[in-house]
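fold-stage: in
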Amino acid sequence: MEYGNFTEIMETSDRRIRETSLTYIRPMMRQIDWRDRLICIKGGRGTGKTTLMLQHIRQTFSGGEALYVSLDNLWFETHSLTDVVTYHVENGGTHLFMDEVHYLDHWQTLVKNLNDNFQKLSVVYSGSSALKIESAGGDLSRRQVQYHMPGLSFREYLALEEGLTQEAFSLESLLRDHVSLAEEISAKTKVLPAFRRYLRKGYYPFYKEVFGGYEDRIVQVINQVLESDYPAVEPVTYATVQKIRKMLMILAENAPQTPNMQRLYEQLETDRNQGLKMLYALERAELLHLLSSESASLKNMSRPQKIYCNNTNMMHALVHNANVGCERETFFLNQLLAAGHSAHYPKEGDFLIDGRYLFEVGGRNKSFEQIKDLPDSFLAVDDTEIGRGNRIPLWMFGFLY
């Protein structure tokens, strides 16, 4: 093969690697075992998957061993990825990093073939959180190690903004030692003003690049997910995409209460089955969180009890004058789920975490009245720097990852 055929894609890779900042590197860098031959990094758009891969390349490789390609690049409309990889390997390449893999037709089979045909090549790829790896035609689920990348936690935001060094703590240690932990952190920073800023502008790492129009950028991310990412994963029509967009806006404006779903389906001119399919597509794409009871969650495609935007930054981008109570619950749910915990809708209280811990979320004057006699029950209270007993400051749940 002639090198000239691939000059553009090679130069793009070199430039992207060279221009990537190493000023702040997220903890996930240490959590990934980069020695595995096939690694998948899933996550919502804008959460930092690309930056993580480029930082790893810049930190680890000095020559041409690693190649980075983004498969939404129009270059691949007229060029073969397999040809590029073949050239890369024949010229000493040992690692391939592929971004936006869902933009490639039959991507599952292609990744499988790369894994089979290039035995000395390590492949890392990223894709939409909506990718269905388990049912993929290429049978990748048993071949690869998967990681999920959420947006910035409140802890990571403080590290990025103020250089605050604080290891994440487990939920159990938070429930047990929250007073001493809060005292330690509060001595280093003005935590409540920072928390208020984070709720509006701090979940997506690109907030550092956007001085004005951050909420407009989030809307652009949402549009790209709905108009490009989702159709690349599922065979949907333009009309269906428009219905999903309308559903998202209606649900965001009503969050956290679930509206009359039958009426919603009528508004969208769809039936229950198609409506639920669209609803769960929004959850897979990390635009919504659906909260169901433990019994309901065992049934596929059931109607959720409550619906939230994925994160508070997205909520403020979609809803003007968002309800503060909804903001608090959205933050709590987002951080717990991102830290790997399960959440269900309980008979009493707001959230049942890991099937054991019961939480009410509210302002500083929130009382225990609803859950006072229940075991393992706690309040997550806003506008509170340091808690007491089973009253835990809401901001502290942003230190779980």
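fold-stage: in (second)
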Amino acid sequence: MKKKKIFNIDIIFTIYMIAATIFTIMQVVDFEVIIEGLKGNGSASPTQFIQIVLALIFSSILITIIKNIFIIIIYIGIKIGTKMYKKERLSQNDFQQTKDYYRDILQGYSPATLSFIDNFEIEYPSTIIATLLQLDKNNLIKMKEGLIEKNLNVKTEDIKLEENEKYILDKISNNKIKIKDEELKEKIIKDALEKGLIENIENGKEKRKKKLFKSIIIMFITLGICFVITNSMGNVNISGGILPIILFLILIISLIVFIGYPFVLVTSYITYIAKNQNCPYVRTKKGEEINKKLEGLKIYLKDYSNLQDKKESEVTIWEEYLVYSVLFNQNTKIIEKYKQNIEIEQ
């Protein structure tokens, strides 16, 4: 189940910077002078007046950036840490706009396991209904017009099922499926681990600690460099030509970079580690290959099939293709028909 974001850090940061810039403009700009200039009472020409106003706005933005440099650094660090977290899980293939088509059925993997390695979340109700269709295909249950019944004549021992499929099958009672979110997630993770599709990221915990320790050392070293640069600025004469001014600007930019880089590094790793506490798993090489095929299959079914119009009774004809169309939220008719049968406990 996807959790709704309580806030969007990009929106909050943008609103804050706009508000801070407006506040700086109100402090820096003399609005009485501007009003006089608009009336034409000032000594400057209209062109000069516009240039002065633009210069004031630009300087206000620059002052805002300097005053909020650590806020900006923290924001950049959080964004980099989040990108590291996503890149480690979602890989480059997930971000490609064009993907290769894949037409073959992914044999030996349950719908729920495939859904989890896709985005490390459980999609409700599509994952459950896709699993039910798979159980129907294996003749373990019967789905018809919003009704779900177990087939007591078939032994589950005769069919190889994953733990999450057994769990969902066991939870069917009186036309309802009562699922506990954490229990199902535990089963799915266990299945994905046994299939070799994911691994616990804790295996690389020591490596991340070493990187964080190195970044802290770099931070203190660069702060020392910044101290030296700051002291050396007093010897720079900016009144004698363009070269000293250029040198002064280079020193200012270097100062910002030297301060910013280590803090961004530390913030990004703190963000990365904090996010990993919620889902300490990444795909293995095998998991990446399966997910790449899954993405190709998703695009193929979307572009070249009309499975969105098929009924659950046609699962014997379309088999896993129909199961996947529900898993990918392409066949919304079946989802709408059976979502009322599912109860999720958090």
